[in-house]
Amino acid sequence: LPENVLQDQTIRYRKKRNERETPSGILIKAWYAQRRARSSINSNSGEVTPLDLLDVLERRIAEVDGKVNALPTTVLRPRQEPMPGR
Amino acid sequence: MKKPVGERGLLAGMPVPIKDLFNVEGVRNTQGSPIFKDTIASDSDVVVETLEHNGAVVYAKSNTPEFGAGANTFNEVFGATLNPWDLSRSAAGSSGGAAVALATGMAWLAHGTDMGGSLRNPASFCGVVGMRPSIGRVAHTPVAKIDRNLTAHGPMARNVEDLALLLDAMSGEHPADPLSLPRLPTPFLTAARSGKRPKRVAYSPDLGITPVDPEVAAITRKAASRFAEAGAIVEEAHPDLREAHECFHVLRAFDFAISKAALLRSNRDLLKPELIWNIEQGLKLTVEQLERAEAQRVAMTARTLEFFKSYDLLLAPATIVAPFPVEHRYVAECAGKKFDNYVEWLGIVYAITLVCCPALSLPCGFTASGLPVGLQVVAPPRGEAQLLAGAKVLEDILGLRGTTPIDPRPAT
């Protein structure tokens, strides 16, 4: 597979987010986990943030995508830090 | 500083991958083609803007066949996407990367598009839900022509409720897309949860136009019959769609000629053979052929509208076969019938595209070898609310919610 990270600067999401608010500023309450994707999100603490979700996905992509090749382009971290296992 | 709940958007920070055919500002958009393998988008498609406005966080691009052509997700840039239920099998396509990401837990929600079943086929092959909405429901950036009404953007998810939520976050009119529809007063998620049951449901294993694998027919028929447990009358019936193959072949070729003829002239050697064939078919079309195809489409749509005066929903297989070996570029034969080209095996979904109906693929069972099978659920044009409500009722009856995500499974 080709290198999966394509941006030279910072993470697109984090850049946008930093323009708007601090990382802890977008808390998603338990109702979110229950209402939005309750079959999928396991939140022991009762609330998850977008960064929590991205961290979960980043780990899962590193674990799985090398076998199925579904998400060849990700924008989770800079080019200089290729995701483990890719 | 925290944003109030009401200002976080419907998705409130939920990560969503975008199909690698559409622009996300600052991110590579290859379209699965060597021609665009290093192209970085300078702006975002309207559908991406809408999603981000509603709280989505775009974190990935999902794999697709070259320019979305064909229902097996492979291309020269990234290679093939494999089916996690059996890694020797196709994930279908063209939204194959999205379906696999959902099935393996690399996404909770995903964006895709559908011309000849590209949201429904991969959902069926991967055991997730994929929905083609009505034309105009999801605004997008017009490319090549305004009235490109064979293709629709739509949501994919692991269950009907999540799918409805994503449709809420994708839908609504946008000034850049003059044919986009306004948002409805009742959210689709509310509609999905309404518990509203269809009174009369039609099932057809083949829509009268295609061969179907007997095992797929048996699984989908059995699932459809379970609507009776919700009090619905279930009958075998379908609208008359006999012109679907000829009509779709012409209109699809026309679409390819409009959007890809310049690429054929400039980069023929970098296009896959199926694309070259499809574009050339379009360039050979006569006005008489287009006139005939449009008349066929009008007639089929009228008959389908009449059909829906008697039935609330139409059910059929979402694919006529179970996942096939990934090295096969497409399905060349089914139940003894050989197909003329790389899209003809998709008649059971593209016939529904032609008659402007919203439709989704719902997981409805597994083959003896453990491969998922999807049931296509169809509602009348702009009937997404009743489609989602009915699909949720059947999803609850079938009890298959929660069968994904899975870890990829080796070839059997």
Provide a short characterization of the protein structure.
The complex is a heterodimer of chains A (86) and B (412). With 86 residues, chain A is mainly α.
Explained architecture:
The complex is a heterodimer of chains A (86) and B (412). Chain A is mainly α. Chain A is 42% helix and 2% strand. Chain A has three helices and one strand; from the N terminus they run αααβ. The N and C termini of chain A lie close together (8 Å). With 412 residues, chain B is α+β, with helices and mostly antiparallel strands. Chain B contains eleven helices and 14 strands. In chain B, strands 5-7-6-13-14-10-8-9 form an eight-stranded mixed sheet, with helices on both faces. In chain B, α6 links the parallel β8 and β9. The model of chain B has no long low-confidence stretch (mean pLDDT 95). Classes of the chains: A mainly alpha (86), B alpha+beta (412). The interface between A and B is large, with 39 and 58 residues.
Attribute tags:
heterodimer; A: about 90 residues; mainly alpha; 3 helices; disordered N terminus; disordered C terminus; B: about 400 residues; alpha+beta; 8-stranded mixed beta sheet; two-stranded parallel sheet; 11 helices; globular
Helix coverage percent of chain B: 25-40%
Return the average pLDDT of chain A rounded to an integer. Answer: 54
Strand content of chain A: under 5%
Report the portion of residues of chain B in β strands: 15-25%
The span between the termini of chain A is 8 Å
Sheet with the most strands of chain A? Answer: none
Kindly state the number of beta strands of chain A: 1
Uncertain parts of chain B = none
Q: List the uncertain runs of chain A.
A: 1-46, 78-86
Backbone CA Rg of chain A: 14 Å
Strand order of the largest sheet of chain B: 5-7-6-13-14-10-8-9
Q: Count of helical segments of chain B?
A: 11
User: What proportion of the residues of chain A is helical, as a percent range?
Assistant: 40-55%
- Overall shape of chain A: elongated
